[in-house]
Amino acid sequence: MSELTELASAEALFASLKTQMASSIAFDAKLVGVYSGGAWIADRLKTELHGEHEVGYIDVSFYRDDLSTAGLKPTVRSTQIPFSVEGAHIVIVDDVLFTGRSIRAAINTLFDYGRPATIQLAVLVDRGGRELPIAADYVGEARLVAADQMLALERSDEGRFSFKLEPWTR
Amino acid sequence: MLSKRNLQLNEHGELHHLLAIEGLPKRILERILDTAESFVGVNEREVKVVPLLRGKSIFNIFFENSTRTRTTFEIAAKRLSADVVSLDVARSSTSKGESILDTIANLTAMHADMFVIRHASSGAPYLIAQHAAPHVHVVNAGDGRHEHPTQGLLDVFTIRKYKKEFNNLTVAVVGDILHSRVARSQIHALTTLGVPEIRVVGPQTLLPTEIERLGVRVFTSLDEGLKGVDVVTMLRLQNERMNGALLPSASEYFSRYGLTPQRLALAKPDAIVLHPGPMNRGVEIDSTVADGRQSVILPQVTYGIAVRMAVMAILAGATR
């Protein structure tokens, strides 16, 4: 892992992620984006990958384990899973993989909708720092990010991705 | 003494207790409504439970009976995975002479995290909030004639669901305004959310003096009050009001203030009808209206659970 000194080109990472997924995921794999960055990525993967990929969105706020210390997020989006999870091949999509707690929460959310056949994980950046035994199946790039920094995905009006480094807030 | 407003908010300006709508800023009301929107989705799933409040203990303490409100608070707490205990206080220690604060102190010693309080005396939840341990949250589930904030919130949530915006609405609240904590909470919520015209409609004997100070228009004629409105809230006429000098009889009341299809036709064609329940059919509302296409009375009950889940989730996440 190299340390992130300059901002990764999010578009290049997206292209790399897409190439890896194109050769591996099931034709009818469902894409579930974690709000908000993961939802944007899932939307673009749906249009740019071959196959019949239905898309869902998860807000993990109701499944987080830090309510007592961090409180409820000011804006909670509605989780939308418009397909049957039962027996489905699902790829959870997120922008940055860090502690793994959001992904744990996303997996728990999915299981409250049914029993998927498989769940995989696709992320643009794996920044290390895992606190749970979680690993991604598709990774745009593994990059270390300083502990007091946060990598935030942004989307332009034209739908193009870029990363911004921000001070860690929570 | 702390002001009502300070008591409800913590030092970060977050909601710590929900005691009244009056004094709550718009951003807090909107946050509750937006969060409730996400809980509506949870309630439509096969598994209607999220693990958010796992390990938290919520005590419903109803010093005054209300099966429906208590049940919806219980369901809301259970769907958040909290441990919930409902106390029928009429049959417990208070009837043996224990004070409210001693009851609360004992339950706090059992590691309560939140109290949901219904009391016949206005202000009882304030008393409890003032003396509660710092980590404990209090929700007012109706106190005397004062407020019923979660009812007011579920009313405005329902209105927003059907009407989308508040800033172009005319809302009529009809019936026993004088004794109604529901009316008071709803009027404060509508005002804060920017509803330009709120009307109160009822017989003079059931309108509080100086109600105009809340910024409402007063009507004693139902026909006049309903003209062109987008939303009609019918209040329950409590039977005990009939016995006093306030009203002649139920049938007399219905003939002047009962909502019939003919009267509802004076409102806008797409007007919706709310009622906090339980309804007295044939007293304040005609069955045809209660069961008609403009009635949103049962959706109110459904949304009430999502709204109460949102309130409990936000409170449990606030620290002091």
Provide the fold topology.
The complex is a heterodimer of chains A (170) and B (320).
Chain A: E1 2-3, H1 10-22, E2 30-34, H2 37-48, E3 55-58, H3 67-70, E4 89-97, H4 101-111, E5 118-126, E6 138-144, E7 149-155, E8 161-167
Parallel strand pairs in A: 1-6, 2-3, 2-4, 4-5, 5-6
Antiparallel strand pairs in A: 7-8
Chain B: H1 4-8, H2 26-43, E1 57-62, H3 67-79, E2 83-88, H4 100-109, E3 114-119, H5 124-131, E4 137-143, H6 149-163, E5 170-174, H7 181-192, E6 197-201, E7 217-219, H8 222-226, E8 231-234, H9 240-243, H10 250-257, H11 261-264, E9 272-274, H12 287-290, H13 297-316
Parallel strand pairs in B: 1-2, 1-3, 3-4, 5-6, 5-8, 6-7, 8-9
CATH superfamily of the largest domain in chain B: Aspartate/ornithine carbamoyltransferase
Q: What value does the average pLDDT of chain B take?
A: 93
Number of helices of chain B: 13
Rg of chain B is: 19 Å
State the end-to-end CA separation of chain B: 18 Å
Structural class of chain B: alpha/beta
How are strands sequenced across the largest beta sheet of chain A? 1-6-5-4-2-3
